[in-house]
Amino acid sequence: MNKEIVVLIGGPSSGKTTLIDALKEKGHTCYPEISREVIREAQEQGIEQLFLEKPLLFSELLLEGRKRQYNEALKEEANIVFLDRGIPDVLAYMHYIGDSYPAFFDKACQDHKYSAIFVLPPWKEIYVSDAERYENYEQAVLIHEHLMETYKKYGYSITEVPKDTVENRVDFIMKHLVK
């Protein structure tokens, strides 16, 4: 069986981390979102919002971390590995803020291909802001649109996960993967 590297995408507070945690509890191999780690490290160094203050540096750190996750996922024994966000997310966020980026960002998207992309749509009823999530709900919707556009640009077919219980969302994803 071929290795499947599956990415969960969506705007802030759409349920990705909750879903990754539920998949992990069921014994699946999962990699967490790395942006919170990058943000916390910057805050420890006195930079409150690295993405807002130095977007290119923040994006380069995310790009390297997501490439590392992809390469580690390839080495996993599990046939299916789930990632909370993928490399094209970095470009989508750069598009969202209207910033440009070096050509190696695009090359990273072309060189690291995922097996399946599942999107969690904006969901106002579960939206929450916190110390690392500064966007409001309307901004989360715009980010979602940029994510969809960016992943489609790289040729991905995107499956939308319905707004439902965590258990039903997990079942939905697994049914679509095991055919």
TrEMBL record:
Pfam families, A to Z: AAA_28
Molecular function via GO: ATP binding
Signal peptide: none
Top-rank taxon, per record: Bacteria
Gene3D superfamilies for this protein: P-loop containing nucleotide triphosphate hydrolases
Coiled-coil region: none
Protein name listed in UniProt: ATP-binding protein
Organism per entry: Flavobacterium proteolyticum
Organism taxonomic ancestry: Bacteria, Pseudomonadati, Bacteroidota, Flavobacteriia, Flavobacteriales
